[in-house]
Amino acid sequence: HFFSVFLSLVLCLLFYNALQTADTGKAAGKELLCSPDLCELQRQLSIMKDNLGTLQSQLNDTKNQLEKLRSRERTKVAFSAALDRNTGPDAGDNILVYRTVITNIGNAYNNNTGIFTAPVAGVYFFTLFFRAGQENTSTLMLFKNNMAVVTTGDYSVANGADDGGNGVTLQLQQGDQVYVFLAAATHVWGGGNRYTTFSGFLLSQE
């Protein structure tokens, strides 16, 4: 149906242009008069132009929406990193830098700074796990930008070791940063066994 309308429109345009060309020989200032049939044809042609403009606008909107959906499908974010050495106790709070990257899809985690930066707005899930023990306490805090969100820790004991962890779902804007602080005068174990880890992934993009 659309093709038939389009073909009719093209024929009408050709016919209209032919009439205008034929009229160029008339004296200037004389008004081109049209028969009732021709005037009706011109009116219908104008309506068809308007309809085509509306269809083109709708087509552009649909293409833009489709491109947004494709962009969301392409955005994949997931990372896991482990602490490569024992850390603490130190005099002040420190951002834990998990240098051993296990997974870093989307390259949003920086293993030089320990900071995850959200590449897109959306809902993310994060976990932090640790091992510590003996005479030192452990306190780890997950931060969103400059605000502590969740905490996990362990009391000092005479011997042995304990494991702990926490997890949280966060709504982030593009550019928001998430990282883990080790509190002053506390410690965690790291190394080849990868006891102490920081992980996160994108649940849904906004």
Automatic annotation (TrEMBL):
InterPro entries: C1q_dom, Cerebellin_Synaptic_Org, Tumour_necrosis_fac-like_dom. Residues 1-21 form the signal peptide. It comes from the Eukaryota. GO terms for cellular component: extracellular region. Residues 45-72 form a coiled coil. It is found in: Secreted. Residues 72-206 form the C1q domain. Its main location: secreted. Keywords: Coiled coil, Secreted, Signal. This is Complement C1q-like protein 3. It comes from Myripristis murdjan (pinecone soldierfish). The gene is LOC115376210.
